[in-house]
Amino acid sequence: MDIDTEIIQNIKGYLEEDEGKALHEYALAVSLTGPCLEIGSYCGKSAVYLGAACRETGNVLFCIDHHRGSEEQQPGETYFDPAVFDYHTFCMDTFPCFRRTVATADLENTVVPLVCRSELAARAWKTPLGLVFIDGGHSYPAVKTDYDVWHKHILPGGYLLIHDIFQDPAKGGQAPYDVYRQAVSSGNFKEEPMVGTLGILRKKGDK
Ligand code: MG
Predict the structure, then answer these.
(1) In the chain, what are the domain boundaries?
(2) Structure pTM?
(3) Mind listing the pLDDT tens digit of every residue in the chain (207 residues)?
(4) How far is the CA of 205 from the centre of ligand 1 (A)?
(5) Cβ-contact 155, 129 below 8 angstroms
(6) Separation of 29 CA from ligand 1 center, angstroms?
(7) Cα 172 from chain centroid?
(8) How far is the CA of 206 from the centre of ligand 1 (A)?
(9) CATH class given for the domain over 17-117+129-164+175-189
């Protein structure tokens, strides 16, 4: 895997190494299917894993994030980080951090950042996708919206990956898991073994 581990270690974010490697592997697998798209880039850790695969195969990675932080990253909340808070606008702003990651990891010719809410980008979206990775807001409305507006763009044989799947409510919030179960119940996806908290679903149908 063509990823600099020193770069990865220095990026803020909550993604385990085995989960990152799985992202990389599935992004490689869809190189002939279609582009990759992630929702919830934060400082770019998952983008480095996905992006390195896309760079290797000449594919493109779209990275959607409004970069204002999700609910749990706001001041006073559990995952607030003052290092990515802009005291001029008094808002979270992880975009400078994300851009630095993309430049450092040599992904400027692979990654297309979309700095907006995911449903805004989806309103004009027409490009079929090989892989969608959902790791944006973790409230039920946020995850459900991300699923609703993006799953239909995944090509047969492509993948829907959802982060932070906790089957045990004592271990974490249930919204990603609820939406994951809905995707399975739709009959449009086949479950693959999870990696850490990464749920992996393959879109059914002929390639
Ligand atoms: Mg996550």
Answers:
(1) 17-117+129-164+175-189
(2) 0.95
(3) 667 788 888 898 889 999 999 999 999 999 999 999 999 999 999 999 999 999 999 999 999 999 999 888 899 999 899 999 999 999 999 999 999 999 999 999 999 999 999 999 999 999 999 999 999 999 999 999 999 999 999 999 999 999 999 999 999 999 999 999 999 999 999 999 999 999 999 999 975
(4) 28
(5) yes
(6) 22
(7) 18
(8) 30
(9) alpha beta
